Amino acid sequence: MKELKPRERVERVLRHEPVDRVPLFYRFKHEAKEKLARVYGIEDASTGRAHNPDLELRLGNDIVLYQVGINADFSHRHIEIGETWYNHFGVGYGKSGLQGRNAEEQAEFAKTQEFWGPAKVVPENFPSFHPITSEELLADYTWPDPADPAILDPIDDIIEKYGDDYWIIVDMSSTLIEAAYAHIVGTQNFFLMMFDKPEMIAGVLDGLAEYYMELGRNIIKKGVDMVRVGDDVGAQQAMMISPDQWRELAKPRFKYMFDAWRKERSDIYIKLHSCGDYSPIIGDMVELGVDLSGLMQPTGGNKDQVEIKKKYGDDIAFVGGFDVQNLLPRGQVEDIRKGVHDTIKNLGTGGGYIFSPSHYVLADVPVQNIYAMLEAQRDFSTYGRYPLD
Fold first, then answer.
1. Rounded Cα gap, residues 33 and 53, in angstroms
2. Is residue 321 part of a domain?
């Protein structure tokens, strides 16, 4: 088969049609991206809503992703120690319990970014203020503007610059459950109120569904190829809520959103994401007409990639599956090559698969391990050659 353009390659995969090679999708947190960008002489290593895809495209990405969900800004922006930054939902964010570094520690940390090896793990930004913690606050709450030009206008530039050649995804996750527990309500509050104040939780989820439905319609009008939604509802060995709870709280609201989007444009593609083990609801994704599921962290029920592919592979495409929790940051080169081989063989056989690490590449991944992953992917991802022969 002749070499396909990236956007054609991705669309064929989503349609379960033959392709020349497995499409690629790499994402980096800022520290890891800066480290690798220097190798390629790329000065702009922006992530989050300001994401510059030059490095990822240099590595072979077939996809350009623009992130606009509730978590699009906070995890990628610089927040000073002791500062609280508020997003357009009114959620406040600060440093995690690690408390950050003082000036001398920051100077020492910066040196580790210059070495051929892992960076020290960095303090993350986390929600520290939640705007809806009572029925009264919910009643007085004003949801953000789904027609906000600051969110929507950059899509035009992305499509103009990349749309002819690459598959364009706009990412609106976290969308419902995670947006509520991690950001709007607070994790402890959410899981208690699911039982103590279910009407309030339903009200928050209804507000999120309405906001993201309208935002999604406005995004789809721009001419993007795919919208990405979802929530982190998977833990290491099972789901954080039961599958039945997800079917009660999330599934009908996703259906409401998807129906509205398909009415806006019938050929829009939809990706549904969750971290962790979400294997019990993959069948529900199929029922919702989801086109792409991932990022398939190999944990819990997601470990059995062969069985998942056998059971659902004809009805939905997958992305991800390569371990970033243990293998990529800690594995030897030979282990990483085997992991890439196994993931591509397990999920890529028969098509319908996009290779990706199962989450962001983080600061603690040595550069040589990133290159081991890149080279193994090149060796193993061509259809008609081992292991996809």
1. 10
2. yes
